[in-house]
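User: My collaborator sent over this chain with a note saying "see what the structure looks like." That's all I know about it. Can you take a look?
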Amino acid sequence: MTNDGLGGGNVTGNLAVTAYRPSGGSKVDSTTAYIVSQRSSKKFKLHLDDSSTGVYTLMAVAPASLGNTQNEFCVQVILNDSTVAYVSRFYNNIIHYVDNAGNTGYCHYTLGAEGTDEGGGSGATAEGIKSGSVNVR
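Assistant: Without extra context I'll predict from the sequence alone. Here is the result:
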């Protein structure tokens, strides 16, 4: 997973980071951070709010639950039934998620924008596979 936009100023379409917490630091509810590239199944290089970059671990938790012993971040997804969940893994156009009640699942995802993602995106199937919307920057 690689996104264009570093250095060129064009960050449209990059997967948005909901919140991040640097090791030993405070949680940042992000308005501009985004994923630059994937380093391993749960490690990603992020472009942060202060324009720096760092490698962070994807956690499927609400922002307030991010720990401060290592660099951690979360990505919120809105499912097609309006459930709020957090991404645990990205696989091509499918994500694995955990919702606030601890339920796990997977869904097809589309890229949305805050305020227009409440429908959860398209791609739900008759087989019961949900769809979700992940914000972009």
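A starting point for your reply to your collaborator: The chain has two domains: 19-74, 76-135.
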